[in-house]
């Protein structure tokens, strides 16, 4: 009983501290759709700059010109097919990277033997940019779809592993003491304490993994792609179509922003029990 009471006391203090911090920072009321304010403000600045001539068309096409180019690509070219092709590469590669990174993190985080085998190679890979390994991947897998998916998977694996592993290793030792006191088995302790405790780290890693996957997508689609947003940008570069290039960049940006927003919203729902500055 004493141990349980002692374990729950910091939680109450954390809640009080979080409320105090939020009150000192400002009103705690959340703004609806706040994540769209920044992008809309950037669009407004872009529009005003283009309309007033501050942003020259040679430097950056105006938003209305980009909208016309988007409509032309959608109606007269295969923009929907290019979008689906890019999404397919990104989703398959990201899924493989997330699953592999999470499994490796769990093995390494819950086992000293697993950590000794897995953690070293991952840390070495962390210091070697994945994009620098692309020539080797081309030699192994060719320049087809396999190389592109493997690159995206590997570039998104590392952040998932790092943050999930840190989350597993960062579980408060007081929970282990409490589990021993009340006689929870190791399996139940892992399922009900360790894995939920590592979930914030996993979701943080997901945000970095999504960004990394899109970075890898941008690069690999420059290699002999016959479909995809990168293929469209490459063709537009050859013909000097800056408005089409901006269309591709905007689509990449929308991909990334929507994916990151989805992860953030998921984290907010899943981790509703945690008192943070966001809450």
TrEMBL record:
Keywords, ordered alphabetically: Cell membrane, Membrane, Transmembrane, Transmembrane helix, Transport
Signal peptide: none
Any one of the GO CC terms: plasma membrane
Localization: Cell membrane
GO BP field: transmembrane transport
Domain of life: Bacteria
Alphabetical list of InterPro entries matching this protein: MetI-like, MetI-like_sf
Coiled coil start-end: none
Domain ABC transmembrane type-1: 83-263
Membrane topology term: Multi-pass membrane protein
Membrane-crossing segments per the record: 33-55, 90-111, 123-143, 149-168, 189-219, 239-259
Stated family: Belongs to the binding-protein-dependent transport system permease family.
Name under which the protein is recorded: Sulfonate transport system permease protein
Biological source species: Paractinoplanes atraurantiacus
């Amino acid at each position: 009983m004493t141990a349980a009471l002692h374990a729950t006391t910091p939680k109450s203090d954390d809640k009080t501290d979080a409320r105090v911090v939020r009150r000192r920072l400002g009103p705690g009321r959340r703004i609806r759709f706040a994540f769209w304010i920044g992008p809309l403000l950037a669009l407004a600045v872009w529009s005003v700059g283009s309309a007033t001539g501050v942003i020259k068309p040679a430097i950056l096409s105006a938003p209305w010109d980009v909208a016309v180019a988007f409509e032309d690509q959608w109606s007269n070219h295969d923009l929907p097919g290019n979008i689906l092709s890019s999404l397919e590469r990104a989703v398959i590669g990201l899924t493989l990277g997330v699953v592999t990174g999470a499994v490796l993190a769990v093995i390494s985080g819950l086992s000293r033997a697993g950590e000794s085998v897995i953690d070293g190679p991952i840390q070495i890979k962390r210091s070697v940019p994945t994009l620098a390994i692309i020539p080797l991947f081309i030699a192994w897998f060719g320049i087809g779809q396999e190389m592109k998916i493997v690159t995206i998977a590997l570039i998104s694996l590392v952040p998932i592993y790092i943050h999930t592993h840190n989350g597993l290793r960062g579980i408060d030792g007081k929970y282990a003491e409490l589990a021993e006191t009340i006689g929870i088995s190791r399996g139940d302790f892992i399922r009900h304490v360790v894995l939920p405790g590592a979930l914030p780290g996993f979701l943080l890693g997901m945000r970095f993994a999504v960004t990394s996957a899109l970075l890898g997508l941008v690069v690999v689609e420059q290699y002999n792609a016959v479909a995809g947003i990168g293929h469209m940008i490459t063709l537009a570069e050859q013909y000097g179509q800056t408005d089409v290039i901006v269309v591709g960049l905007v689509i990449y940006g929308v991909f990334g922003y929507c994916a990151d927003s989805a992860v953030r919203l998921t984290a907010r729902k899943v981790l509703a029990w945690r008192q943070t500055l966001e809450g």
